[in-house]
Each structure stands twice: as structure tokens, then as C-alpha cells.
Design goal:
Number of strands: 26
Largest sheet: 7 strands, antiparallel
Radius of gyration: 30 Å
Structural class: alpha+beta
Number of helices: 30
Distance between the termini: 50 Å
Shape: globular
Strand order of the largest sheet: 14-11-13-12-18-19-16
């Protein structure tokens, strides 16, 4: 949690954070009233942005007038001036076109006005004017970001901070600099070098990037090999931040209090000044070496980065033929002494002058040949302008179809992962570009691989493959803060925003936690916040000696040892019993549909749960109460008595182990009514808090559900559009779309008089009749499978996983005593009754 603002009057203790109002989407926790709920995160039909409204022209005009009255220069679209319109268009963009996904999504989005701040007072005036009219404000520096950080999704005012360009204090004794958010990094480093200091790190866009833009929108860059990225405690010493309140405050944040604002895209406050530590300036030398294999080039870069007596500011690796094809033909060529060939895997290192000899020997030790050595100050083009996203820039200049990914290769497995990627992908689809970064003291790789995917779907498959194979993705194809790298939203950051931007006017649509008014964890997984925690995904398994007391426990019951159960307090733990079925789903789907999607959704949710939640998934029960399909070939079903006894016996085992909370996670409609009875019996027999949830039970107003026709939502209960879409996403190789058709329900064609009383598709306590699947359709399938699409299935899966994560979290946090009542006003006087009899 955030420990507090720097000034005493803004102190925020843990209790205050917890007291921040949390608007809920439901009156009760989900486990009290079922699993279906409406989401607060509606999505724009056109582009998929979280809910917000573009301000009215009158509101913008009023805010602009107030800012101008305060003496701030403002360009407004309403002025209909060609030069102003051109500037508004320019300042509403960043380099989002690097992503084909964002290029389509963000193109054409523009602000209604641009305000040019020269002072901190100007920022306060603009923000106050915007808040008074509920007009969005998007802060920007030079706009060198690549993910749409500075793009206004809902119009409003873009606040240009480049005028805040003064170096307020350069402390040559302590080695620190305090400068305005609009100060160019190149200007700052030129000034600090005159005092014998230099920036610890900067992006490859050092020439024109601003200090505030780097801190608010960046994460790491040249110099991270020596000093780590911005997520490191101490990388940013202090921030001066303007809040978006009716009367804006100017906060002085120091220490770990800076983290809710660092890399937050300006959603949590407007940064007006930054203090960073410096490093002693070095006479750097750029060294280029060529290698016969990628593995040798990568090994050399890691050796150089880890060499204790050779300071290296940066090291990059380029898989052949990347350097030859895209970099070596630059006007200021990389290889002055020997041009590269298309078979060369190239490494670039910037080291201290005295380290050239050791670096040359390390290259030879790894089978390489040094092809160029040049003093950094004499180089026609700086080494960092061949690295990081400048590599992507050079490639895109020659091939506009180039895009990229961002992932982390943890230090102890870096070479193994480099080889794994090379073995998986053809060089026509992926070429590795690796940057050495120090993670918690050891050197690993940040991968900015160049990609040429055939489709957007293939792009997402490549990203998913990296995640599945232990390389966390920092997704450059989304404009949403948490979806990029954090993978979670934390309540500390949400609480900070609730105080600093209660109206949500700062860069709306970029923070998922705010748009959904919830967080996936009650506190940050790392005391430095989710941004810091996400960037430490690279070192969680390799930078510390394994300690049984801190080792992350498996979330699968079968993977625990009996000593684990005997020695663990399980009183607050949550057991999850997956209930599924193996039954016919028509000619287009396999029998294991319910079992397959239940397992896939549960596995994903377990990975997303906050670390502090102890949840254990029992072995899945893939055969259930499927008597309604008993006349179809291949059906496997348990009798009602057998299924009930089995589920109750397993509940008894859970209670005997010491757990008091159990979720029956069901994917088969035929199990649902019986499971409700069993849940009540487990409460009666074993005093368990037993929650029943159906994995695909969604509210009709969820965006992921609204893509399906209303009739399909009413009647498509088995093997129709929803389940087929889900299988196209999860197991496309098992779906035969040529056999898919509209398996219409007979119930939909019944006469109204009969349909009203003899309903087969009736929810809850409605009047209904018992049915077998062939009563509804002779194929045993009910629904229009031709309406299915993999994208719809992906959206359903994402929603189901998010719902389960929230459910498990709520059940874990619930006190059993607060939910279950044990006082009876008029108890019976006879002996205790054996509830199991």
C-alpha cells in the first residue's frame, strides 16, 4: 500500500487507503447470490475503449475560456484556425503506429484543445478549469511513447508540458538533478556532464524525450544495464505532482510514494518536476562484435554485462540478418572496420574506455570478432540510437509491416530462452533483438523482438506463446496501463487516484482499475506498486536462494504433499471442486467440451490470483449428471444418487482437512440443480461455506455477451454459439465448423399458450418441465453454432476468468462467521439429527 504523501498534511495511512469509497457493481458479494453480474466496464462499440463520454462543445469552450483568462496559451478546435488544427492533430499523437493493433484503434483520435503550460501555475489553472467542466486532460511531453500513452481517447484538453523546461537544481556534490517535467533529457545530460555527472538511464529517444514523459510513460532504457529500470527503488528520488481536484493541490512525493505516479501515463496526477540521481560521467567507447551464432552473441553480451571490472552502460544483440538488413546500411554505419554479412549475429556494447581490452577478449572467448571500436563522442550516431525501440524505428523505415513485442528473459535462464525462441520461430516471422538489463543485481534480457505476423490473431498467438513459455510480455499493443505489463490492478494505486483525481478526468480510458472501479488485489504485490512488481517478474525465480517458507505454493490439491496439509493453516483457504461432464455436443464438437473449457478457465484464473490468496483446486470431476444425453452414443453419466454422494464425500474430505470454504465450479447445466442441493447439504453436514458457480453464467448486458443474438442467449444452451466460440478459442483443432449449423430448439417453436406453461428454457424458480436433450433437438444440440467466432470465445474466456478471480478473492476474504448464522431462536428439543442420514 502507499505509505503516504511526503507532506504531513497529506499523510495517507493504511486505514485511510482502505477507507477510500469503492463503488461496487453489486449490492452483495458474488458468492452470496450467484455468479452472474453486470460489469461496470462497458466497451465502446467502435473501438473497444472503457466507458467515458467526450465533453460537450460548451464544456470545452468554458474550460478553454477559463484557462485563457488565467493567461495560458490555448489552441482550440472551435477556433477553426488551420495552423491550430494542425498543431492539435500533431500533439494528439505519439508513435502508436508501431503497433498494427493500435494504429487501427487510435488513428484519428484528437483533442478538442491543446494548452501550453510554461509554469506550474499554468498547469494548476488548466487542470482547475478542466475539472470545473468535467473535461478530460491528457498530459504529454515530447510524445515519444509507443503505446498511445499521450493519445486523448475522449477528446478534451491535451496539456503540453514542454514549456516546463528549467533545470531547477543541479547538486554536483550529491549527484542529483531536479528539473521541470518538460526538460529535454539531452539538455539535462549536457548540463550535468559539465559537472562530471550523467543520467543513469534514458530512452533511445534521448535527443527529444522529456524527463517527465520518460518517468510517466517509460520504464527503462540505455543505462539500465548498470542501474536497472525506473521500477527500482531510488531510480526516481522525488516528484512534484498537481492533483485534479476542484482546487488542485501540488504534492511533493518522495521515496516509495512516487510509485503510484511513475509509469502511470498521467492518470494519477500531472508531473511538473522530477528529481533523479546521477552517475559519474565516463569516457564511453562503442564496441561492435560479430558472431557465428545467436547463442554466442547473447552469451557475450551477458558476460560483458556481468564483468565486475568493466562498467558497461549498454549491450544489445541482433539476430542475423537483422543488423545487415536493417542497421548496417544507415548513413552512419555500425561497422566501420568490417561491414556485417547476412549471416552475422551482432552485439553492440558501450563500455568504459579502460574496458575495451577485456571486452575484446570476451568476444573472442565466445567465438566472435570485434569489427568496430569507436569513442562514443566521435561516433556518427550514438550507440543507443541503434538500440531499444530505435531498432524498431530503423526496421520500419525500410519495411512498414514490421512490428515488435516486449518481453523479459530472466537472468538464470536467459540463454536457454533465447534458444527456445529461435527454435520456435522462423526468421521470416521473428528476429530477436535483445537489450541487457540489470534485474535486482543480475543481468538478463529485455526482448524487443521484431515481428512480421501474418494476421492480428497470429500476433496475439506469438505473445501468448512467450507468456506460456516463461517470458512475461509487456504488451506494446494496448493503450491500457495494466494490460501492458502489470497483469493486475492494485487497490493502492486505485486509492491514490481516488484522492488525486476523484472525477477521473486525467487521461481517461487508460487505467483499468478506475474504469472498472475495482482492483484484482487489495494491495500491491510489491511495496513499490504493480509497475515495480511486474518488472520483477524476471527475477522472482532466479535472484534469491530458494526458501521453503517463501516458495510460491502450488494451487493444485494433487501437487501438495501430506506434510504440506498437516503443517498449513487452511482455515481461510478456498477449495475449488471443478464439476464438468463428458457428453455429446453434436457433430461439430467433442464430448469433452465442458471438461475442457472448465479446466482452461480455472487454470487461467489460478495464475491470476494475488499471491496472498491460498486457493486449492481439487482434481476435476469430468463425468457428471448427464442423464439428459443418455440416448446418444458415447455419453458418460453418473446417476443422481452417485453424483450426489461423490460430491458430498469430497466435501467431507475438504472439511476434514481443515478448510471451511468450498467453491463448486460447474461447467455443465445438468449438474447445476443437483449441485445446489449438495451445496446446502455440505453446509448442513460439515458447516462449510459452500458456493456454487457456473462458469458461463453471464449477465446479458456484458459486452462479451451482447455480440450474440437475443434468441441465442435464450435458447442456445448446449453446443451453440457460446460454447462453440469458446472452443474455437481454446481448442480450435477439435472443432469441425463444416458440421456446425443452426440447431434450433423445439421449445422456441411451441405455440405461445403451451410455451408459457410448459417451458423448457426457464430460469430460476420459473415454471418448467423436465426434458431430455432430444426433446429440444434430435441432434442433442441446442443453439446456432454457425454464429460462433474465436474472437467471441476469447472475450467470453476473459470475462469468465475475471469473474472467477473476483469470486475466489471475495470468498477468501470473507469471514465464515459473518456469512453463516449459528443462532436459532426456536431450536428443536430432540437429540441431534444425523444430517447425512
Amino acid at each position: 500500500v502507499v505509505s503516504g504523501f511526503a507532506r504531513p498534511e497529506f499523510l495517507v495511512e493504511v486505514e485511510a487507503i482502505a477507507a477510500v469509497p469503492r463503488p461496487r457493481r453489486r449490492a452483495q458479494p458474488r458468492w452470496r447470490r450467484g455468479f452472474s453480474t453486470a460489469s461496470a466496464s462497458c466497451v465502446s462499440k467502435a473501438r473497444g475503449f472503457a466507458t467515458a463520454a467526450r465533453p460537450s462543445p460548451d464544456a470545452v469552450a468554458s474550460a478553454v475560456a477559463k484557462a485563457r483568462d488565467a493567461g495560458v496559451k490555448v489552441f482550440a478546435r472551435a477556433d477553426d484556425d488551420a495552423n491550430q488544427l494542425r498543431m492539435i492533430r500533431k500533439l494528439s499523437r505519439d508513435a502508436f503506429e508501431y503497433s498494427p493493433v493500435l494504429a487501427k484503434k487510435l488513428e484519428g483520435l484528437e483533442a478538442d484543445a491543446v494548452a501550453f503550460a510554461k509554469t506550474q501555475d499554468d498547469v494548476v489553472s488548466v487542470v482547475a478549469a478542466a475539472v470545473s467542466e468535467n473535461v478530460p486532460v491528457v498530459a504529454r511531453g515530447a510524445g515519444t511513447g509507443n503505446y498511445g500513452q499521450a493519445v486523448p481517447l475522449f477528446g478534451g484538453i491535451v496539456l503540453d508540458l514542454s514549456g516546463l523546461d528549467q533545470i531547477e537544481k543541479l547538486d554536483a556534490e550529491r549527484g542529483t538533478v531536479l528539473a521541470g517535467a518538460g526538460s529535454l533529457l539531452s539538455t539535462i545530460e549536457d548540463a550535468t556532464r559539465q559537472q562530471g555527472w550523467e543520467l543513469r538511464q534514458h530512452p533511445s529517444t534521448r535527443r527529444n524525450a522529456t524527463l517527465g514523459g520518460f518517468v510517466a510513460g517509460g520504464s527503462t532504457g540505455h543505462g539500465a544495464l548498470l542501474h536497472g529500470g525506473l521500477s527500482e527503488d531510488g531510480a526516481v528520488l522525488g516528484l512534484r505532482v498537481v492533483t485534479a481536484e476542484a482546487t488542485p493541490r501540488v504534492l511533493e512525493l518522495r521515496g516509495r510514494d512516487v510509485f503510484p505516479v511513475v509509469h502511470a501515463y498521467g492518470t494519477n496526477g500531472i508531473i511538473v518536476a522530477v528529481e533523479v540521481p546521477l552517475a559519474r560521467a565516463q569516457p564511453w567507447v562503442d564496441v561492435t562484435a560479430c558472431f557465428p551464432s545467436l547463442k554466442e552473441a547473447a552469451a557475450f553480451a551477458l558476460d560483458a554485462g556481468n564483468a565486475p571490472s568493466v562498467p558497461c552502460r549498454g549491450a544489445a544483440v541482433y539476430q542475423a540478418p537483422l543488423a545487415f538488413k536493417f542497421l548496417d546500411k544507415e548513413p552512419s554505419i555500425m561497422h566501420a572496420d568490417r561491414p556485417s554479412t547476412d549471416g552475422d549475429h551482432v552485439a553492440l556494447v558501450q563500455c568504459a574506455a579502460a574496458g575495451v581490452g577485456p571486452i575484446r577478449r570476451l568476444a573472442e572467448d565466445n567465438g566472435g570478432e570485434v569489427s568496430r571500436v569507436i569513442n562514443a563522442e566521435d561516433a556518427p550516431r550514438p550507440m543507443y540510437e541503434f538500440g531499444w525501440n530505435h531498432t524498431t524505428l530503423h526496421c520500419r523505415r525500410k519495411d512498414k509491416s514490421t512490428t515488435y513485442l516486449q518481453s523479459v528473459l530472466e537472468p538464470d535462464k536467459a540463454l536457454e530462452l533465447v534458444q527456445k525462441v529461435q527454435d520456435e520461430f522462423d526468421s521470416s516471422e521473428l528476429l530477436q533483438h535483445l537489450e541487457c538489463v540489470r534485474f535486482g543485481g543480475k543481468v538478463g534480457f529485455a526482448s524487443l523482438a521484431l515481428l512480421w505476423p501474418s494476421t492480428h490473431e497470429r500476433l496475439h498467438e506469438i505473445l501468448a506463446w512467450h507468456e506460456a513459455n516463461g517470458m512475461p510480455i509487456f504488451n506494446p499493443h494496448t493503450e491500457v496501463l495494466e494490460d501492458g505489463g502489470m497483469k493486475q490492478t492494485d487497490f493502492a494505486q486505485l486509492g491514490f487516484k481516488a484522492r488525486a483525481d476523484p472525477g477521473g478526468v486525467l487521461n481517461p480510458g487508460k487505467m483499468r482499475a478506475w474504469d472498472e472501479q475495482r482492483a484484482t488485489t487489495e494491495e500491491a504485490a510489491d511495496p513499490r506498486g504493480s509497475f515495480a512488481a511486474s518488472y520483477r517478474l524476471a527475477d522472482t525465480s532466479s535472484l534469491q536462494d530458494e526458501d521453503v517458507s517463501t516458495k510460491k505454493r502450488s494451487r493444485y490439491w494433487a501437487e501438495w504433499k501430506t506434510t504440506d496439509f498437516a503443517g498449513t493453516d487452511l482455515s481461510e483457504a478456498v477449495a475449488i471442486l471443478p464439476l464438468a461432464a463428458t457428453e455429446p455436443h453434436g457433430p461439430h464438437l467433442p464430448l469433452g467440451v465442458d471438461a475442457m473449457h472448465n479446466k482452461a478457465l480455472l487454470d487461467r484464473a489460478l495464475k491470476r490470483l494475488p499471491d496472498h490468496i491460498l486457493a486449492l483446486a481439487l482434481p476435476p470431476l469430468d463425468i457428471g449428471a448427464s442423464g439428459e444425453h443418455s440416448r446418444f452414443a458415447g455419453n458418460l453419466d453418473l446417476s443422481v444418487d452417485t453424483a450426489s454422494r461423490l460430491w458430498r464425500d469430497l466435501g467431507r474430505c475438504v472439511a476434514r482437512t481443515g478448510l471451511r470454504k468450498l467453491i463448486l465450479y460447474n461447467s455443465h447445466g445438468g449438474n447445476q440443480a443437483l449441485a445446489e442441493v449438495v451445496a446446502r447439504q455440505l453446509r448442513l453436514e460439515h458447516d462449510l461455506l459452500c458456493v456454487l458457480a457456473c462458469n458461463l453464467n453471464f449477465s446479458a448486458d456484458e459486452e462479451a455477451v451482447q455480440v450474440f443474438p437475443q434468441e441465442e442467449l435464450m435458447y442456445g444452451i448446449h453446443g451453440g454459439a457460446l460454447e462453440t466460440s469458446l472452443m474455437l478459442h481454446l481448442k480450435p483443432d477439435l472443432v469441425d465448423l463444416s458440421a456446425a449449423k443452426d440447431f434450433a430448439s423445439r421449445a422456441a417453436r411451441m405455440p405461445p399458450a403451451t410455451r408459457n406453461q410448459l417451458r423448457m428454457h426457464a430460469p430460476g424458480f420459473s415454471t418448467k418441465c423436465g426434458w431430455l436433450s432430444h426433446d429440444l433437438n434430435a441432434s442433442g444440440v441446442v443453439g446456432n453454432a454457425r454464429e460462433a467466432a474465436a474472437d467471441h470465445g476469447r472475450a467470453l474466456a476473459d470475462l469468465a476468468v475475471a469473474n472467477l478471480v473476483e469470486l475466489v478473492t471475495e470468498v477468501h476474504e470473507a469471514r465464515v462467521e459473518d456469512v453463516l448464522g449459528n443462532e436459532v431462536e426456536s431450536p428443536h428439543r430432540g437429540p441431534p439429527v444425523d444430517a447425512s442420514s
